[in-house]
Structure formats: C-alpha cells, structure tokens
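Hey,
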Amino acid sequence: MQRPLHFRPTAGKAYIEAAGGWATALLVAAAGAIHLYLWFDYFHLVHVVGALFLVNAAAGLLIGAAVLARRNRLTLLAAGGYAVGTLVGFVISTRWGLYGYRETFWGSWQEAAGGVELAALAAAMLSFALRLP
C-alpha cells in the first residue's frame, strides 16, 4: 500500500520535535548564563561591552524560556537569531574590536561560549525545519 503524500509519522516526529525544542532552549539559556557569568567575572568593568554582555545574558535567558513555553517557529527563529547575532558580535570584537575593546579569539570561555552558540544554532535550525509544513 502506498502512503498518501500528506502522511507524517506522528509519534517519532513529535518526540524529535520535543527533544529539539528542549535542546534549543537549554543551549540558548546556557549561552546567556555564560555571558552572565562573564559579566560578573570581568565584563562589568568594560565600558560599553559590559552592558552588551548583560543584555546578551538577559536575551539568552528570556529566549530560552520562550522556546520552552511556546516552541513555535517564531521562538525558534529568535533562538537562531540570538545565536547568530552573538557569534557575529564575537567575531567583530576579535577581528576589529567593539567600542574600543578587542577580544581574543581563543580561550577557554571563548571556546565554550562559541561551541554552545553553534550547537544552539544547529538545534534551532533543525527544530525549525521539523516544524515546516
């Protein structure tokens, strides 16, 4: 018997969608938590960049909570945008400097944050793709 074109397995896909949503939310919140820790550790002393770390931390925690609460395409786009924006800001700060502060590209916290943000982006993209009609 041939499957109709609109056939979608529901149990397996629903489990993968839920796992992807949880992974996205936790990874985005973890990126926010890393930035909050770094703000308390040192960046509260850096003029403009310190405030951006605090904004980034708040955004990561709020977007992570929103993804957990809603898990729709809009919140997944916000999670992906957060990850991309954070990575772009990091690259700009290492390559050219940002508001007079120039970050180093390699280091334990840079690698941890970058890895979490790349994983968050991948999870958000996968979760978004699974929700397409």
